[in-house]
Structure formats: structure tokens, C-alpha cells
Design a protein that fits this description.
This protein is of the alpha+beta class and 187 residues long. It has six helices and nine strands, in the order αβααββββαααββββ. A seven-stranded antiparallel β-sheet has the order 1-2-3-7-8-9-6, sandwiched between helices. A two-stranded antiparallel sheet has the order 4-5. Strand 8 and strand 9 (169-178) form a beta hairpin.
């Protein structure tokens, strides 16, 4: 796990996005409900490619995330994917509008308050997860996600989750994010 984290931490192409974009992620399901408050997911770090082309996360699931004894519940796997895909979409939107570099360097995005917004980054409309192998409690996974294509307000994303020690594919996914239409009230 340490080598996977170092791969991102020591790279000039990647930056730790969960700290620079959200102030540490407080108030989110993974950080609060599963992370800081219960330690069920003691490690979840999100990295963005500086050009906005991809997001990667490194996560470890501990006891308490079981579906079957010793195996992480599929809903936790889906939650990790959905959250990482959300970050992927937000990073890509920021890259598309030219404000990603400034945000990753700690400056607020143009017209942005703290955190994300469904009006800016959209929301998950569909998530399909293909489970390929058991995600065992205590193991660390690497989640790699990217935007596959954009069709108007629809943003199609893909991702995969691999065990960092064995390289085994745990799951892969595809997702659809939708950016809402601007409101008639000036949104």
C-alpha cells in the first residue's frame, strides 16, 4: 500500500485532490461515516492528474465492512466507486473550464464556494459495478477512473479497482453523470 501511495505522492503529474478540493472531505459518507468516525475505511486518499484526465484513489477497508465474513460488502465497493467517480467528474469539469490548476494549488474555483455542487458537477444517474473478485477486509485497493465520453450534459465515466498487493482486478464500473440544465432563475 505504501508503494502505491508513494507512486502518487512522489509524482509531479498527480496531486492529492481530497485535501485541495474539499478541505479534507468532512461531511461525506466515506470520510465521516466510514472513515473518521468508525475507522471502517481507515485509508481513502484521492489523487488527480494535474491535467484533469484521471483520478485515482487508494483505499483500505477494515473489519465492519463485511458482506460475507472477511469480504467487503458490495455496497461499500459501489460507494468507493461512486465517490471516486464523482471526484473524477468534478476534476474533469474544472479542467474543462480552465480552473483546475488554480484549485489544485489551493485557490478557489471561479464562482465557487467551498465544496462541490450538483449544479456545477452534476450527479450520478447510473452506476454499474461488475464484481470480479472478493475485496477482502484489510486489503488495500487502487481505484482508477476517467471520463470516457461526453454527450451534451451527459458525462460517461469508467473505473477499475485492483488489489495493490496482487494486482488482481476486484471490480470495474461504468457510470453516467448528468449536469442539470440551468434554472430559469439565472442558474
Amino acid at each position: 500500500a505504501a508503494a502505491t501511495v508513494a507512486k502518487y505522492e512522489d509524482s509531479v503529474e498527480w496531486v492529492r485532490a481530497d485535501l485541495s478540493l474539499s478541505g479534507g472531505g468532512e461531511g461525506h459518507a466515506i470520510f465521516d461515516t466510514l472513515g473518521a468516525k468508525t475507522n471502517a475505511v481507515p485509508k481513502y486518499r484521492i489523487y488527480a492528474r494535474r491535467d484533469g484526465s484521471a483520478v485515482a484513489a487508494v483505499a483500505t477497508a477494515a473489519a465492519g465492512c463485511d458482506g460475507h465474513k472477511g469480504i467487503v460488502h458490495g455496497g461499500i465497493t459501489a460507494l468507493l466507486f461512486d465517490n471516486t467517480l464523482g471526484w473524477t467528474n468534478a476534476v474533469a469539469v474544472l479542467a474543462d473550464n480552465g480552473s483546475l490548476a488554480a484549485v489544485l494549488d489551493g485557490e478557489p474555483a471561479v464562482g465557487a464556494g467551498k465544496g462541490g455542487s450538483p449544479a456545477r458537477f452534476g450527479f450520478t444517474a447510473n452506476l454499474l459495478v461488475n464484481y470480479r473478485a472478493p475485496f477482502k477486509n484489510g486489503s488495500t485497493v487502487e481505484i482508477e477512473c476517467k471520463v470516457d465520453r461526453i454527450e451534451g450534459r451527459k458525462r460517461f465515466l469508467v473505473g477499475q479497482m485492483t488489489n495493490v498487493e496482487t494486482g488482481q482486478l476486484i471490480a470495474d464500473c461504468s457510470s453516467l453523470f448528468v449536469i442539470p440544465r440551468p434554472s430559469a432563475a439565472g442558474g
